[in-house]
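Quick one, T. Sequence first:
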Amino acid sequence: MTNTKIVSPKQDLIFMAILSVVVLTMPIWLQPFGAAYPDLMQKFMIFGIFAIGYNILFGLTGYLSFGHAAFLGVGSYTAVWSFKLLSMNVIPALIFGTILSGLFALAIGFVSLRRSGIYFSILTLAFAQMSYNLAYSVLTPITNGETGLQLTQGDARVLDRMAGIEADASLPTPNLFGIEGIGYSGFYICAALMLISFFIYLRIFRSPFGLKLRAIKSNQNRMGYTGYNTRPYLMTAFVISGMYAGLAGSLLAVTDPLAGAERMQWTASGEVVLITILGGVGTLIGPLLGAGIIKYFENIFSAFNETVLLNAFSFLPDWLAHPVAAVVGLFVGEGWHLTLGLVFMLIVIFLPGGIMEGISRLARLITNRNKAEPKSGAHENKEKEQASAGEV
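Structure tokens:
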């Protein structure tokens, strides 16, 4: 499902303004849903960045990668090393994490993009698993293996010491010129970066470059026949997508200064595929919706334990409350994946274009109904006029 409608720059600015208001007021309107705490909202922003970057590749070109978790992991490891060696300021960590992930994506894309379709997907999956195994065992001096890379009191932090910033008895916290990267201030740092990332993504989406990527998805062979060399466009999209993943991985390290090999597992790559499909492949806002829904399920539904359910159904008689809580418990708590699977199955069967297709259908239904009402009213007036003329 692609967006080919011509939109003016003014409309894009209005859209960005509305999105900015929605994102920056999340602590207010998420309160009734129980999702207004900083850690979860930071995940909304971080995985939103991950998803929109992935949509540049999968949504626009149709190339399905199962290896993007590798770039997420590279971003995380690079950010933690930046904190250990340079400074607790997040700017060097974000810059180096994004750049190194882009270079890693360039190397993997150089090999993987020699194939297309399922062969491309298998190659990216193989590279991701190789990266995971390297981080878990072979590159232990760099990654600290299964324990994960974390901060210590004895870290160099050269730039901080040059600026006269000395660590106290507790471990330092990542910050942006003194603004802590945790709590609500950390959320607003992530939100600002997500909005900047989304604006760049929007410009790519609307640009001639984005149009060429959609043409590759539509018919790559025909583009080749017309003289276009599609490989540079695909490589550029792959690298940009990898850089977005690296930025998301760096932000994960900002919110929690720990980098582990589990962030490079194939399940993390599968999650971003699921997010994109759920929201709407190739749509503008769909990946953000998909990221929000999945992270909400993961953090809210998974917290419903037996005690919470029994309290929720306490209005029922005891002989009924326990069986109802037991049945509902299959779909929440540890079984939240079952609910997510059912939702995903329903979306794929009835809304192949994801949630955005459902929203589009609903909008068309409302629009058509509004158009039909004036016509029916005019038709009734015309019939009355004809009846009056007949009586005369």
